[in-house]
Protein: Large ribosomal subunit protein mL52
Organism: Bombus terrestris
Amino acid sequence: MNFTVAINKFHTSFPIYLDQKWRAVRNLTKNPNTTGPLVNLSDYSFKDNKPVPYASRQLKRIQKHQEYMRKIIKLVGEIDFAVERHNRLLKEKEEQEQKILDSQLKPKGVLPIINQ
């Protein structure tokens, strides 16, 4: 089966034509060209192990992932703060209700003793 499309005599293939069910069963990405060692690792290395410069768009990709990480940490912190605040407000409300119940008028006189 040939999944190429001719546009102005230029043949191209689309990742959408890949077998997506097979990829989903194996927990793979929809487009294999977006992740993996060919994208994330350097193209070469030096014998003396000095660092290699970033590949094209690799620095932008790293910065984008770091920005996502900062945003996730910020939002998780806000959610944790909101949950703690909500629990604290519920506790204060219960304490206020208990305080109101404790301050109500109490009956005067001797209460009858009931034998049990």
User: Anything to note?
Assistant: Residues 80 and 86 are 10 Å apart (CA to CA). The chain is about 45% helix and 5% strand. The chain has a mean pLDDT of 82.
